[in-house]
Amino acid sequence: MASLARFLFAICLIAVAFHKTMVRADPPAVSDKAPAMDWGIPAVHTAAQLAGPPPGISGSDWAHYPSDIREQLKFPDYRHHIVAVDQFGSARLPVVTVTGHDAGGNPDGWSVSLPPLITEDTQHHVYRFKDADGNPRYALRKQFIEYLEDQPNTTDGFGEKRGTNAIGLFENYRRLLKAGAVNHVVIFIHGGLVSINDGAATACALTHAMLADKAYPIFICWSSNLLDTYQEHLFSVREGIRSKEFAPATAPLQFLADVGGAATRAPLAMVKLFRNDIYHLDPTAFSRASQAQLREDDLKKAEDSPGLTPSELPLKLSGGLRGYDMTTDTQRTGDFASWLFWLGAKVATTPIIDTLGSPSWFNMVRRTRVMFERESTFVNEEVNKEMLQRAYDRGRENAADLKDQIGLRWESRQGALRIFFDSAQNELQWGPPGSPTPQPQISLIGHSMGAIIAGEILTRYNGIRFDNIVFMAAASTVNDFKIKVVPYLQNHALTRFYNLCLDPGNETGEREPFNYAEVAPRGSLLVWIDSLFDSPDAEDDRTMGRWENAVLGMDWLPSNANGDRITIKAFGRNRTLQLSDTGPVPITGVPYPYDDHPQVGRKFLEPAKHGMFTQYGNGVHPSFPFWRPYYWTAEPIPPGLTSATIIWPPLDTTPGHRSL
Predict the structure, then answer these.
(1) How far apart, in whole angstroms, are the C-alpha atoms of residue 157 and residue 142?
(2) Over 90: is that where the pLDDT of 224 sits?
């Protein structure tokens, strides 16, 4: 026992020594010159390069756009579409390199680096400037504010003249909106297990597709990859806050606790996951599945009732057109044989997944929160004391000095997403010329853990009217929906909410990371969260993205937040085109077409795995334009709504006459 204690003590000392060698000297706390946002020299393309429109934009529209608009549509500055937030809740600067082009010369490959913005480190970078009356003031977060709000040839809030290239995210949006090149906004938040660099590179590819649909895309990219979050848990964070000394010193003990905890939980964890496997094979053996089916039948009967108008329904339900699951007995037998063959591998990997996955999950949840409010260590205490003392020296009634001191603390603590949405609340409130609405249609889309972040946005920014809120395979809980989304819907009568799920058979039977080699327990990430990573305290603490959880969680909704404004939709499983025609069928008759001429008997290409909801790109098969409304809409798809529809018509608010 004494030998083990000495060994652990030695490891702790080594960890502390290693950590100290990695800490750089702190830069000066205060300086008189704040570095401005460096936009660089803008890329200018030739008339020949801008002559033809990029894929998806019509020639007639292209002919009416001036050259600067053409430039931003065909060769966009991707910084105008990406808000990158690191593990500290600070903004990063996306530096994008185009690594490939298609046959038409359009960008078709990207790599992204994300250097820090110096002024985000408010503990060490506070800047002095003088106001119009010559009084000293302090400024923070200058570069990120310029990144968002820069306008050319203007004087910014710090008294500095901005150049002709100073075009921030919102200024670029206004220019495209005014030119008629965009008519709605899509804000997309990716989920967990994604590196911030990969998320930004994916955003570059999606930017072109969304701009072709006249959508102005804004991508919230954040650091959520597995190894990075576990490393932070192990070496940097204790009890919810970062610790420069204590966390590295106790890293060996934390690792032992992770491994030991996973080992003791292993028998129960394996039983839980085996229970999921049995559920996958025969859901009818479980009362929860029966309850979900009963609730689904109730809701469908209400929808078919001639006595209820669409606005009087509890909600719209779409269960992947039940009965279209064409899984054969042969497939089921092969499925069971594969499970049995790989049983030993699953038993071996379960403790490993628990060791890495559980703490990483909780640390990812922590990161969804620091995106809005950073830690108090970002406050420069020395400057804070100096400002407070100056306010008292000049008299307690000196409100300007006291406001500066309060502002220093608040602006230091603000996460990058808070700064972004504080600006967005004002910048997205107006629409294109001639529009009858005060703002363009805005869709907020969150995939997996992105739905957790979307819920925080709805809670904090009631002043932004989102027309469409879309949760795809949401890792947020049913309770989150009730306390964050429902109040928002009550305050915004024109907002629609969509909750997209996998078919329960695909949810419980998902194989990762390989389709055939079952080296990990079956089940989607949401199954692992409910059964392994998290410990739901009550039924509503289970994930909203699973069909049964969502259906059973909708027993009651307030009258001003129900009806056809809420859609719970599950995609199908192994569905084939069951049309009576032979040969090619019209594309408008197929909600998720295989290609331009789908054949009877072919499978629907629809999400069958947790990560497929947002799958899109050149050479990516299948690809889903997940920002289009037909993707979210309950089946059967209403007449007039096709896969090419890019924007919803407004809700008809006449009682009993809501369309679509």
Answers:
(1) 9
(2) yes
